[in-house]
Amino acid sequence: MTFDGLLALLPIILSATAAIVVMLGIAVCRSHSRTVNLTLYGLIATLITLPLVGGVIPIQVTPLIIMDSFSVFFIAMITATGIVVTLLCKGYFGERDSENEELYLLLLTAVLGAVVLVSSRHFAALFLGLETMSVSLFAMIAYTVRNEFSLEAGVKYLILSAISSSFLLFGSALVYAEFGSLVFSDMLSLATTSGWTPLTAVGLSMVVVGLAFKLSLVPFHLWTSDVYQGAPAPVTAFVATVSKGAVFALLLRYFASADLFQHYPVYAVISLLAMASILVGNFLALQQNDLKRLLAYSSIAHMGYLLIPFVAGISLGKEVVIESLSFYLVAYFITTLGAFGMISVMTSGEKEMTDIADYRGLFWKKPGSAVLMTAIFLSLAGIPLTAGFIGKFYIFYAGVQASLWPLIFVLVIGSGIGLYYYLRVIVAMLEEPGPLKYAEEPLGAFLALAGLGVLVIILGVYPSPLSDLIYQIARTFGV
């Protein structure tokens, strides 16, 4: 391997090294604060090396892995999210008497799997990254076994994730049987010469079903609310952002490399999944009083919004898809992390503050936290001057440019419904205070959440730097 190739692999190497160091640290001496610090050092080191990687990209490091600006962009998002989740876990688990050091080891291995996933150009790397991430998540979701829902959530995620992985593995086997290659980009040239066959259609359909389970798209969404409710709030934040964002980045690379945007059956299937996810997700969120379940169904709707650029790609090309999807994912990461982060820092003791009624009068008791939550929920609703509005504008613009009027209509209806249930939370915070007492927010976690709140406003008012960066990534994709 060349020096440039070794340099390009630094994010993967450092993520794996951080996991090993934390494991050895736990074996030598148990200390929650020391384990948190080691985890943060590893993730920060990974983040710092990304500019070095930027000097040698694009480069195909191995037949399985490619490092380009697209990979580096999503690795930065994943690593930064891992840092925020670590800070949330420090406050959330620090007050518990049980030994919680292994959680950070699982967090690092999940980050490692996500980093491999967004750098994959081959089905083998896809499966390795996806399963490394998923196996870590099984234990993270079920980590607080004293919670009556936690173990149930872990078992449900284990079973349904295994089913989805089976679909994905068998579908990739059928694709290999047809093309004789598992490299994403090879599918384009091989399909051009031999055409699409029934075997190819079945294989690709099974791959899409497997990934739809991971993204909780309707009708493969039934696990989402129970898993979100049962998992510890910081873990839910990780599942809702990194696990879904990494799969979406992988799906985007797969579609763009194999040029699946140009095939009408793909257009029809993705359109149906998008409309069903937007409508079902929003209507189910309307009925929820539990904040974690509300955000779970809301995330299903957001995954539906993210599919609209995929459909638009059939007429607009992959550049528009990459631009709109990447910006929306950034806004989604920030706001979703903020929402579950606020649940984490508000929790005192074993019981989480998840009922909307728990936040009655928060503005009068903790005005800073209430303002932060208001900004986050307004962004989730897509209100102007927030990052969520710019992200939704990108989605809307792509749909209008491609004349996807049925999808645009569903997007508008879904956004209107979403506005109602997001405003329910904001109105509750302005009501007369209830009898509950809130926990004191850990300083590190609160500063991280405050930073997310500032980003929500900055990206809503001045999105140009991020837009320009994503524009350059889209233009150099595949070069």
Structural notes for this entry:
With 479 residues, the protein is an all-alpha fold. It has a domain at 273-479. Helices cover 77% and strands 1% of the residues. The chain has 21 helices and 2 strands. The chain has helices at residues 3-8, 10-28, 32-48, 50-54, 69-94, 102-118, 123-141, 150-179, 186-194, 198-215, 224-230, 233-258, 264-286, 291-316, 318-346, 362-365, 367-381, 387-401, 405-430, 443-461, 464-476, and strands at residues 59-60, 66-67. A two-stranded antiparallel ribbon has the order 1-2. Strand 1 (59-60) and strand 2 (66-67) form a beta hairpin. Helix 13 (264-286) runs antiparallel to helix 14 (291-316).
Number of helices: 21
Q: What structural class is derived from the secondary structure elements?
A: mainly alpha
What is the averaged pLDDT score?
Answer: 85
* Number of beta strands: 2
Major sheet description = 2 strands, antiparallel
Oligomeric state of the chains?
A: single chain
Largest beta sheet: what is the strand line-up? 1-2
Summarize the structure.
The chain has helices spanning about 5-10, 10-30, 30-50, 50-55, 70-95, 100-120, 125-140, 150-180, 185-195, 200-215, 225-230, 235-260, 265-285, 290-315, 320-345, 360-365, 365-380, 385-400, 405-430, 445-460, 465-475, and strands at about 60, 65.
Give me the secondary-structure topology:
Blueprint (H helix, E strand, L loop, with lengths): L2 H6 L1 H19 L3 H17 L1 H5 L4 E2 L5 E2 L1 H26 L7 H17 L4 H19 L8 H30 L6 H9 L3 H18 L8 H7 L2 H26 L5 H23 L4 H26 L1 H29 L15 H4 L1 H15 L5 H15 L3 H26 L12 H19 L2 H13 L3
Antiparallel strand pairs: 1-2
Helix pairs in contact: 2-3, 2-6, 3-5, 5-6, 5-12, 5-15, 5-20, 6-7, 6-12, 7-8, 7-12, 8-10, 8-11, 11-14, 12-14, 12-15, 13-14, 13-19, 14-15, 14-18, 14-19, 15-17, 15-18, 15-20, 15-21, 17-19, 17-20, 18-20
